[in-house]
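Case study 2.
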Amino acid sequence: MNDQETLTILPPGRVPIPSVRGLLMGREVLYSFVRRDVTLRYRQTALGIIWVVMQPLLTALVFALVFGQVAKLPSGGIPYVIFAFAGLLAWNMFNTILTRSSPSLIQNAGLVSKIYFPRMLVPISVCGSALLDFTVSFTFLIVLMIAMGVTPGFAILLLPLWMILVLFLATGIGLFTSALSVRYRDMNYIVPFFMQFLLYASPVAYSASAVPSKYRLVYEINPLNWLLTEFRFSLLNLRAPSVWEIIASLVVPVAVFIAGAFYFERRERSFADFI
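Prediction:
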């Protein structure tokens, strides 16, 4: 009896619905991409995975100096280094997924143009290394919190939910930008610039309560604002998010992911022509 699965490739319908079965059947390809991604990131580096901790720690120290000591912005009674590190924990996962998924199809042009597999696995695979980085940084943050006497509440149990929502939001946008970058290489310049702007336009280094009221609407429609508030609520026992923020953060990231998957599926057949 033949135990091998058979995948039948059919022409797309009028509505480009991604094939969940095809993605599941390509899980070995996904694992290969994740292994290669993790290996290449830390191969031939003197400190290896220590950079995962060093980068956000040094950034948090700079934020603590500039925003905590110089600007005297509030941190809810939490040491500013920990306050900033908690924000960077969510931000770095979002930033890593988006900036590395956008050029992923171009970087794997040889595979995309010559071998059949669900192309969506390429941008999705960067989530593996992003989760590894998150785990290492989160472990260090817990050690830092214990050393400084910061204790999370029961809301820490909700942290996996906020992680999943960040993954959905970043991956959904990454599917959009990776599909666009195949035809429009300008995305390789637009995405890094946009992320630099978004870093300071989101309450990563400062509290949302420090934002002047005249700019409040802009911040309240930013999904990262909700997720950062929820991360700090779970990790540092700070202000609980409002009901509308929780509802919006449950709906918007999932909607963005679905929309990104549909757009990617619609553009997938033309990748080989432009790549």
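The first helix runs from residue 20 to 25.
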